[in-house]
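Limitations
The structure tokens in this dataset are predictions for the assembled complex, not deposited experimental models. Users should treat interface geometry with appropriate caution, especially where small molecules or nucleic acid strands are included. An illustrative entry is reproduced here so readers can see what is and is not provided.
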Amino acid sequence: MRFWRTVAESYFILVACALISTFSGLLAESNLGLLTTFSFLLFMVPVINDIAGNVGSILGARLSSALHLGTIARGQRRELYFNLKALSLSSLVMYAAASVFFLLYLLLVGGSARYALVMLVSGLLLTPAVILSSTLLALFSFARGLDPDNVTGPVITSLCDVLGMSSLILSARLIL
Amino acid sequence: MEKALKILLFQSLSVLLFCALADFGAGSVLEGMKEQFRALPGLLTVVPPLVGLRGNIGCALGSRLGTALHLGTLKPRLSRSWELVGNALASLFLSVVGSITVVLVSLLVRGSLGLSFDLLSLLWIAAVSGMLAGVLITFLTILVAFQAFRRGWDPDTVTGPVMTTAGDIITVLCIYLAVLWWG
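Predicted assembly:
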């Protein structure tokens, strides 16, 4: 029956991705004191993780299309570099914009402006990590004959949960 | 700047900006839950996997509906066709069963690291939030895919980012509701 086929095909990839995200949750909970004392950090979690997740998914999907079309191949790197440049730039612009927006919010509710700096620094740490990991994941899954469209999206989003949480905690420890 | 780069930047930045603004909503709910995170060990561990799960289910449903709409096997209106009902039921089923599996798996990881957790309340939270969020996200995905298709937008481009972001807010809110309900 097609109901069970859809369920079975999705179930394992969903649980596997959730397992990756669990480490983001564990990391958060082992820093529970930090996150609940400076609770604006909790506020930033979805924003930081999602910008990275979206940038990674867009890059993964674009590289996957280019690999399928053959515009990225051995000796043909222009398309690859173009995408890396564009998505790195998008990521940096987004973290800068989100930090400015967050700064305005902090000024409005009377929070410390240092939180906006934490967001900016996590974005700076996160951008190269996301660009590198989604590029490697797209190239690797294409080389292994897996369809990057089905694999990279969910895996990158989950991976970005972990990378995002790590960079947030790291920059919070540096700045706060 | 090259023209292709400008176009790509414009498109990706508009989607990203919309999603980031909505994520501030999810963030404010999380911040409001800080007392619950202190009171219920294991709760913060299961939040990222549950949120991610729902986003992925919404994306997959959106992409299946998008394919069926493009192929013409599904018309953009409510009907009792298998393409619609079967897909919706599959995503609802995955939402509930997936949430429960996710909680069990994350608690297994937690337990193997020697950390404490509250099994019963977390299973309750997984089941209730899985049901609630599953229904809301399934309906929203169908609505977004149909509306996008009717207006001549590509449902494949629209549903993915929209559902991931909506999934964040709806899931976080439903987890909060389930926690409050458990008491």
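Some entries come with short summary sentences. For this one: Chain A is about 90% helix and 0% strand.
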